[in-house]
Automatic annotation (TrEMBL):
It comes from the Bacteria. Pfam families: DUF1540. InterPro entries: DUF1540 (IPR011437). Residues 4-60 form the DUF1540 domain. This is Uncharacterized protein DUF1540.
């Protein structure tokens, strides 16, 4: 799988450098917008989540 950059740092699949270590992820659309495709993905600030519904990634699992 290509690198997946993610800032949800309280997920069990998250690792330093804003990388995801899951073998497969499920994503749904995010109507709230996002950030520029040119953003430096590895240095974005952490955005921890309290539950699956707080992320657009349905693979999120709390650490
Ligand atoms: S929230 Fe999703 S993309 Fe982010 S680390 Fe967890 S499984 Fe990977």
């Amino acid at each position: 799988m290509p690198d997946v950059n993610c800032t949800v740092n309280n997920c069990k699949y998250w690792t330093s450098g804003n990388l995801c270590e899951a073998q497969q992820i499920v994503i749904q659309n995010d109507e709230e917008g996002g950030f520029s495709p040119n953003a430096n993905l590895k240095s974005l600030k952490a955005t921890p989540a309290d539950a699956n519904d707080d992320t657009c990634c349905q693979t999120f699992k709390m650490k």
